[in-house]
Amino acid sequence: MLTLLVNKIMGLHERRQREKESIRANILQAAFTLAKTDGWASLSIRKIADAIEYSAPVVYDHFENKEAILYEISINGFHCLQIELLKAQKKHETPEDQLTAIVDAYWNFAFKNKEYYQLMFGLGMQCSGKGLMKEEFSSFQDMIFDCTYEIIKKKGSNEDSACHSSHALFSAVHGLISIMMMRNDDIPSTMNKTTLDETVSAFIKSL
Description:
By secondary structure, the chain is mostly helical. It has helices at about 1-40, 45-50, 55-60, 65-90, 95-110, 115-120, 135, 140-155, 160-180, 190-205. α1 packs across α2, α1 (about 1-40) crosses α4 and α4 (about 65-90) packs antiparallel against α5.
């Protein structure tokens, strides 16, 4: 009898946990869908609650505020980005080819996932997370540094310059993407991609 009671309680707890996780996932999906339609700036707890057909207090039961929802989505964006970067890196052997592939993957991710990228880096809005996602934020920079260091080492150049050089490349890549996203009506995409390719090629030669 006691065993049956324990099993019943455990089953009830597991069901409630699944329901909680389901609602949480629905909140995140609804927020992302709303952002793709209306933009991040217009997102609100009330709109999310209406979208999932629950009351606002239910949303607050799972997330402290809208900032917490944005933070969770941005973290997921960084994880998705890292998967793409690692896939690109593994296709190549030399650090030069890896660096080129990583930058291309970063560029492609940004424009295939504009809503993610804008939220992750605060383009046109306040950056989500208030500096809390340092590890995820630095993944791309770390991979650029590793490739840069290996290229410099192979060439016999000054290894101490790897940090500064890799940061300069990241700034250039992120800057091109930001310009493209904020002024996409009057700047041809081909021009920016050509500039990116030329920048990476020149960067590798300069090391």
